[in-house]
Amino acid sequence: MILSNPKGTQDFLPPNSEYKHYVESEFRKVVACYGFREIVTPTFEHTELFLRSTGLTTDIVTKQMYTFTDKGNRSLTLRPEGTPGVIRAILQNNLKLPARFFYIGPMFRYEKPQKGRFREFYQLGIEAVGEAGPAIDIEVIELGVKFFKAIKIENIITILNSVGCQVCRPKFRINLGQFLDDVKEKICDECKIRAERNPLRIFDCKESVCQNIYQEAPKITDYLCYECQTHFQAILNELIERKIPFELNKMLVRGLDYYTRTAFEFVSGAKELGAQDSLGGGGRYDNLVEDFGGPKTPAIGFALGLERILLAIEPPTISTKLVYVIPLDAETQKKGKELINLLRSAEVPAMLNNPEKNLRAGLGIADNLGCEYVIIIGANEMKKNVYTVKNLSQRTQQEVPQDKIVEFFKTKSLDIY
RNA sequence: GUGAGUGUAGCUCAACCUGGUAAGAGCACCUGACUGUGGCUCAGGAUGUUGCGGGUUCAAUUCCCGUCACUCACCCCA
């Protein structure tokens, strides 16, 4: 019992931990190209922050938050998502706008775990705060697509919709409410609850009966105000022009309350993902900063689920730089110690064979460690003033002059993720 | 929160349906053949409170109940 991790958490063991590092470093490269810089915010915040932003009616807030009272009697919550903390930090520190930030870190939601869904999970996210025009919407979507391409996830579909704004959404909601009143006898029980609590979510229903009914329902896109309509149309035009494939889905809504206008989701066809096929999602949230008491500030962002990405990628090849040094006898032991010190000070990772293990055993250990190279030092080498360098995977070996050994390994670029 | 499935060696699983006479296999592990060349081969070795608790029975890994854990799905989302 003591030796088990809490439900919904997981250990990232090698090589999985290295795959994680690979995904994160590719993400860093891509976002850097678009001018996003890293922001690191606390993993817990005042509970109120999430109540005010994520939304009082959302599942996340009503039943999934890890909320606790600390010894100073403050109500704190492990962050269930990244955006509120980022916006808080921007306002609190009075940062200059526009600003572009990215973050990578664990989020926490009390859910029942299943494939691609955990209680502690990592998100890779970006937030562009203070830019209103459609240009940034396009950059953000393009960035997402580029990232998936960088990590070689090919079968990604970008699903796109506009959820309107404070001007047009109320009109839509009234009409949708009327529609739901008319059909409430025919829809499923779940939908009846949704219709009361959060009508926009009815479109998520998977019952075909309901889906058929909702074909006739009012769509937000038919109610967009002139500004929202223009904004949305500009995005569609530009995406087509840039040949970024997308799929319009008038049913797409977002689970968080603060979204406005552009809403999108990156969906994968990879069957490894099970039911959780959404690798990430995001959208515009033009009112959130104001809701926090800041100036009226447009913003857009997205978040990607790291664990789901790991399910979808082809694992990269991980090779280790570690060089395994095997002195053959008592006389060469000292030489071996000097050699690993020399290599280490040149930033070449090195490890010495245990004197109790013979050459055969040492090679086996090096192989298990994933070492590409082994250095063998024995009487013959000492005589000729060389080291025998053996490449384990290619099963080749060569003699390298002792004074050239550091240089030899410095020219090898075996990156470890 | 709801539903279904699964818990046997470090890992993957068999035996369970049809209860029965030392609980097995493969992989991994350890030792040796093998004191200057690893992934092969050969010989040998160690390993289990059959998740936990209770019940039925002469007898339970096997059947029943409970419980916990894991998995998948619903829900929701990244």
The helix count comes to 15
In spatial order, strands of the major sheet run 1-5-6-11-10-9-7-8
Low-confidence stretches: none
Evaluate the radius of gyration.
28 Å
Share of β-strand residues? 15-25%
Helix content: 25-40%
Structural category: alpha+beta
Total beta strands: 16
| Main pleated sheet | 8 strands, mixed
Mean pLDDT: 88
Shape: elongated
N-to-C CA distance: 33 Å
Structure description:
An 8-stranded mixed β-sheet has the order 1-5-6-11-10-9-7-8, with helices on both faces. The chain has a 5-stranded mixed β-sheet with strand order 13-12-14-15-16, sandwiched between helices. The model has no long low-confidence stretch (mean pLDDT 88). The protein is an alpha+beta fold. The chain has helices at 16-33, 47-53, 59-63, 83-92, 134-150, 169-183, 189-197, 208-214, 226-241, 288-291, 306-312, 330-345, 359-369, 379-384, 405-410, and strands at residues 37-38, 44-46, 66-69, 75-78, 99-108, 120-129, 156-162, 247-248, 260-268, 278-284, 299-305, 320-327, 350-352, 371-377, 386-391, 396-401. The two termini are 33 Å apart. The structure holds one RNA strand of 78 nucleotides.
